[in-house]
Write a structure and sequence with these properties.
The complex is a heterodimer of chains A (about 200) and B (about 270).
Chain A lengths: L2 H16 L11 E6 L2 H13 L4 E4 L12 E5 L3 H14 L7 E7 L10 E6 L2 E6 L2 E5 L5 E6 L4 H9 L13 H4 L3 H16 L1
Antiparallel strand pairs in A: 1-3, 1-4, 2-3, 5-6, 6-7, 7-8
Chain B lengths: L1 E3 L10 E3 L2 E3 L2 E4 L2 E4 L5 H13 L7 E4 L7 H9 L7 E4 L6 H4 L7 E4 L1 H9 L8 E2 L3 H8 L11 H4 L6 H8 L7 E4 L4 E5 L2 E6 L13 H14 L4 H18 L8 H5 L2 H7 L3
Parallel strand pairs in B: 1-6, 1-7, 7-8, 8-9, 9-10
Antiparallel strand pairs in B: 2-6, 3-4, 4-5, 10-11, 11-12
Helix pairs in contact in B: 1-8, 1-11, 5-7, 8-9
The chains are: A alpha+beta (about 200), B alpha/beta (about 270).
């Protein structure tokens, strides 16, 4: 870390301190990472969550929103560390780099992907729904159907996952890692809930 | 009638042509893909419905491979800048505001799946002729701030199935098409925001689980419109036909959509349409 960057971080820390102590999730100054597609955002979310940064996935600002897109909001104080983390990851993952379009500042951005997951029994099967996405499992955990959604990777995920047992699906083959869209991201929430149940 | 939508195959280039069903596959210009795959379920539902009226030659398909990266979707958007048919269904496609606003809306456009998401995100739902949301998607249409169903705000997404009329009402405060079919335990047929009819029987609960039952509904409705039925008549009939398909095959949560598609002529015949 060079002196210029240390000085920048100290200035930001000082600025926040002067504004008084606030809850870390409350009125902390925020930044947003913008990506060219949902896949990059999902990779980045996984990386930053592992390292314990206070981040959340949100919709990008309306002026640059395309319809199926995802951004990451972070505490501005962490910006340098986050940039560093992504750079290091990219150095070690030449073929699977996280491609960040830009970092921007944000005020009161709170449009987040929904989290509500509903479960219901149909015959001997379990239907798990998150928003527009549904996954159906038999009593052994076999994925028998995937429905809902409108992005092109939904039928791709159905093709890849149907007929497999949810208990045996490795992380790299979950909807979040196989897919590219917000539908995949939403399906993953239903998938994770299903996995917990078996 | 044009059907525009992606197939989840990598490296499948743009295909335009008339589709036929051969066995369990769709053939377009000698390119083959399964009838259950992606936009395939919609295409085959249209073929099976229009065959009944000897109108299957009315169908033209514009498709391309896309596993979610958006490459095939872009090729389809480009093809839709000029449309030479009076009815087009836009199906599995990556929602892109900058692309959907540039398509030709001078004829009737039916939005389902990504085709509907893109229209709502771009706030141009009123340029469409018809939408086919389920309950989760209706909540998205009703949420003036959501740009994708994933961003529906909690207080809207938690509205129960029985509050669908409230959601329909809320959706029509946004820019919506003249016609809408809300599919679910009860199907709602909507014209200009007014509920024209509700269809609730026969009820086959397993239908909610089966991927593609929305595609068959869109395919049958669009085909009936193409065959001369009014949108409301077509919607009433297709909601019943779709439910009867579930009955005919004795649908279970693990039933696959191709089984239902193949029975469309049986149900049309039974209903003496």
């Amino acid at each position: 870390m060079n002196l210029k960057n240390i000085s920048l971080i100290n200035k930001i820390k000082e600025h926040i301190k002067n504004k008084g102590h606030k809850d870390k999730n409350d009125n902390e100054k925020k930044g947003i990472i913008i990506f060219s597609n949902v896949k990059e955002a999902m990779k980045c979310e996984q990386l930053l969550k592992k390292t314990g940064y206070n981040i959340k996935v949100i919709a990008p600002p309306i002026e640059i929103r395309e319809g199926c897109d995802l951004a990451i909001e972070y505490d501005l104080i962490d910006e340098f560390g986050i940039k560093n983390k992504i750079e290091k990851y990219n150095e070690n993952n030449n073929k699977n780099k996280i491609k960040v379009l830009k970092y921007i500042s944000s005020e009161n951005y709170n449009q987040q992907p929904l989290d509500l997951v509903k479960i219901k029994k149909v015959d001997d099967f379990t239907l798990i729904r998150c928003g527009n996405m549904k996954i159906t499992l038999d009593k052994e955990g076999l994925i028998v159907n995937i429905s809902g959604g409108g992005c092109p990777d939904v039928p791709y995920l159905a093709y890849k996952l149907k007929g497999k047992n949810i208990k045996n699906i490795k992380v790299e083959n979950n909807p979040k890692n196989l897919g590219y869209s917000l539908c995949a991201y939403t399906l993953n929430k239903a998938f994770e809930k299903g996995k917990e149940s078996y | 009638m044009i059907i525009a939508g992606t197939i989840p195959l990598e490296n499948l280039d743009l295909i335009k042509g008339k589709p036929i069903i051969k066995g369990n596959n769709i053939l377009i210009n000698n390119i083959k893909f399964p009838i259950f795959m992606g936009t395939g379920a919609l295409i085959s539902s249209c073929i099976k419905t229009l065959e009944y009226f000897n109108l299957e030659n009315n169908i033209k398909v514009i498709t391309a491979g896309d596993i979610g990266k958006g490459d095939g979707s872009l090729k389809i958007y480009n093809e839709l800048k000029e449309i030479d048919d009076d009815l087009t269904i836009i199906h599995y496609i990556k929602p892109k505001i900058n692309n959907i606003i540039n398509i030709d809306f001078s004829s009737k456009i039916i939005g389902d799946a990504g085709g509907m998401y893109a229209g709502k995100a771009a706030n141009i739902g009123d340029k469409y002729y018809m939408f086919f949301p389920d309950v989760g998607e209706l909540a998205f249409l009703a949420d003036n701030e959501a740009s994708h169903p994933a961003y529906v705000r909690g207080f809207i997404s938690e509205i129960d199935d029985k509050d669908i009329p409230q959601l329909i009402n809320k959706a029509y405060y946004q820019k919506m098409p003249k016609y809408m079919v809300v599919k679910g335990k009860i199907d709602y047929i909507v014209e200009n925001g007014n509920i024209m009819n509700k269809i609730s029987s026969p009820l086959v609960e397993a239908m909610e689980c089966i991927g593609g039952t929305g595609d068959t509904l869109t395919g049958i409705t669009s085909s009936l419109i193409n065959a001369g039925y009014s949108p409301v008549e077509a919607s009433n009939l297709s909601c019943i036909i779709n439910r009867k398909l579930g009955k005919v095959v004795n649908a279970k949560p693990n039933t696959q959509i191709d089984k239902l598609i193949m029975e469309i002529p049986t149900v049309l015949k039974e209903m003496k349409i």
